[in-house]
């Protein structure tokens, strides 16, 4: 039975059924933390420390001392810093791990890579491990920069204005520092590529934006890992497709968490640009969606609990689950081009973990 058929048999709905496993897979989908732990053993070392070489540098050490001044405020840089040390739910180091797993699953490209074999550990070239670190640095910089606060929307409970301004400066400087280190390391690989991002307007704008902001980094990193091992264009495209679709599936899974039964506090805010909300709007229509938002406003604040129930009552959640599993199937389809191995099994288990909803 093919990998994607295993996932397809899980069905489109949000029910408690889990995708069945055969062959390389266990009888039931393991929890995310177990999937990551088993995958890290395959690539040779825990990727949770993959970028500590940069994060523990003297420069960032000084920045960390400054971040301590934000304790007591609600600046998002604090939660980002905590997440860099431990994030058991989404695992911030997932991208580097996938790059290493794809590298191991593809293996050497043939006799042409004999000169590259020196320094190979667990079937992965040193340049591919460096690329995994670079991928994590770029994503970490993205997270840090995303934590910049809109000072015009501050509330008294967020903390003093001067502290929030200081936090923004630290977020900009530390994010830029990480990007600078990533660019330096990328140049040392002597395999840089340029990406041009243009504005896009249309019905598919959300999907394109999500790819550019969340999936392009992993997809192109997987592709570059194949190029570093001198694989041909076909294998590079397969790796790109896995990274793209797995990352999209992971993002949709993250968007779905506030709407999955028993997963969230009804009073917590969620993004109105999340996959369930966007799909709900498409089914409902823009005018009715704006009406629901207006009806959910109480004294100038949005009642997320009421809006969440409105979205759950529509087709947005089930459609988002279908979309998540669609991209999971596409990722599994790409994996079928790799020979059976522990690395391929781990990559498939990651897909099963992000496409299973209780």
From TrEMBL:
UniProt keyword list: Transferase
Gene Ontology MF term list: prenyltransferase activity
Gene3D superfamilies associated with the record: Farnesyl Diphosphate Synthase
Pfam families: polyprenyl_synt
Superkingdom per UniProt: Eukaryota
Keyword hit for Membrane: no
UniProt KW Glycoprotein keyword: no
InterPro entries: Isoprenoid_synthase_dom_sf, Polyprenyl_synt
BP GO terms, sorted: isoprenoid biosynthetic process
Region Disordered, residue ranges: 1-30
Family that this chain belongs to: Belongs to the FPP/GGPP synthase family.
Protein name, as recorded: Decaprenyl diphosphate synthase subunit 2
Organism: Ornithorhynchus anatinus (Duckbill platypus)
Name of the coding gene: PDSS2
């Amino acid at each position: 039975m093919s990998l994607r058929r295993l996932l397809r048999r899980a069905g489109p709905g949000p029910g408690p059924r889990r995708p069945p496993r055969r062959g390389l897979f266990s009888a039931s989908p393991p929890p995310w933390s177990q999937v990551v732990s088993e995958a890290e053993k395959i690539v040779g070392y825990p990727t949770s420390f993959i970028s500590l070489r940069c994060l523990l540098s003297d420069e960032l050490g000084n920045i960390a001392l400054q971040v301590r001044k934000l304790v007591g405020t609600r600046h998002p840089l604090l939660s980002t810093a905590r997440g860099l040390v431990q994030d058991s739910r989404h695992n911030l180091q997932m991208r580097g791990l996938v790059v290493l797993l794809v590298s191991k699953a593809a293996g050497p490209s043939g006799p042409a890579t004999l000169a590259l074999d020196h320094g190979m550990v667990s079937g992965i070239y040193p340049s591919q491990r460096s690329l995994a670190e670079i991928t994590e640095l770029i994503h970490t910089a993205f997270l840090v920069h995303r934590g910049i606060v809109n000072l015009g929307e501050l509330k008294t409970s967020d903390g003093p204005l001067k502290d929030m301004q200081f936090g923004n400066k630290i977020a900009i400087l530390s994010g830029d520092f990480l990007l600078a280190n990533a660019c330096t390391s990328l140049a040392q690989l002597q395999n840089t590529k340029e990406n041009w991002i243009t504005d896009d307007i249309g019905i598919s704008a959300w999907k394109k934006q999500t790819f550019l902001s969340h999936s392009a980094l992993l997809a192109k990193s997987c592709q570059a890992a194949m190029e570093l091992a001198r694989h041909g264009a076909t294998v590079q495209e397969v790796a790109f497709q896995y990274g793209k679709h797995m990352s999209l599936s992971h993002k949709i899974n993250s968007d779905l968490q506030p709407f999955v039964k028993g997963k969230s506090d009804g009073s917590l805010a969620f993004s109105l640009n999340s996959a369930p909300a966007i799909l709900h709007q498409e089914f409902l229509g823009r005018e009715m969606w704006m009406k629901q938002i207006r009806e959910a406003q109480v004294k100038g604040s949005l009642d997320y609990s009421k809006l969440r129930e409105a979205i759950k009552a529509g087709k947005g959640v089930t459609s988002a689950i279908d979309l998540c599993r669609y991209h999971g199937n596409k990722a599994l389809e790409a994996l079928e081009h790799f020979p059976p191995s522990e690395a391929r099994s781990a990559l498939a288990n990651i897909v099963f973990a992000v496409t299973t909803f209780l």
